[in-house]
Design a protein that fits this description.
single chain, mainly alpha, 60% helix, 72 residues
């Protein structure tokens, strides 16, 4: 989800969870509990999910986002 939100040329943030909700629903993932956890960890909109929650999620499950420098 974090990589998808951080993709090249995403639509501008409209200060909602529209894109996060779309991602979760398209994959039949639990929307409300996930949004609740994201909000509780600083993700009050799509862009804040990317900027505030990515590291917390990684710490929780042992995931690290791709290092953009490694792709260069």
């Amino acid at each position: 989800m974090f990589d998808w939100l951080d993709r090249p040329n995403p639509p501008p943030c409209d200060h909602s969870h529209r894109l996060t909700t779309e991602y979760l629903r398209d994959r039949a993932l639990p929307t409300e509990p996930t949004l609740g956890w994201l909000k509780a960890n600083g993700g009050y909109c799509d862009c804040e999910v990317m900027f505030n929650v990515t590291d917390k999620w990684g710490e929780r499950i042992g995931w690290e986002p791709a290092n953009e420098d490694e792709d260069a």
